Amino acid sequence: MNRAVVLDEQQAKAIREWLNAHNKSLIADVSLIMQAAVLRVGDAVALRFDEVINGEIDIEEQKTGKRKALTLPAPVVQMIARRRAEFPHDVHVFRSQRNRSMNKQAPVRREEVSKQIAEAAKAIGIYGTVSAHSFRKAGGNALYRRSGNNIALAMTVLNHSNITDTRRYLDLDKQAVSRVINEMDL
């Protein structure tokens, strides 16, 4: 299986803009919270309105069983408030229109999120394996860069058990080698 591309912040934003422009705001909203809260797609789509309290979430990660508690940034809080106002009877923040029309209280499927994100990436010229997971990586990478390359902080937010996993996950070694090669005086 190919590893998901690590998007930069501009690429992630461009994909969300394309999704919104093509009437796929649900997928754009899922990708926003994945990036901002550095969530896995399963945790993002499973998020319920009752798990968001005063702009904070405290969830148990599906993959690891570890707790993840954090304060959400203002754009995410606003997006959740907008979705709550639009869909006051939904349990899940990211319930699909199809599930709503079938009166089924279930979130959008992870596979659908990845499929739509891959379609958007291709449409705007981003190639490689771009999936929903690329947004979690984008969030982790942005956090790493904005914290002054604090690998321990990135490791904590990603809930990794060691720094080696975080370096591999964010392709930090590849990025460092590329940067040095590009700075060579040839």
UniProtKB/TrEMBL annotation:
One BP annotation, GO: DNA integration
Gene3D superfamilies from the UniProt entry: Intergrase catalytic core
Domain called Tyr recombinase: residue spans: 2-182
Top-level taxon: Bacteria
Pfam families associated with the record: Phage_integrase
Keyword terms of this UniProt record: DNA integration, DNA recombination
Xref: SUPFAM superfamilies: DNA breaking-rejoining enzymes
Protein name: Tyrosine-type recombinase/integrase
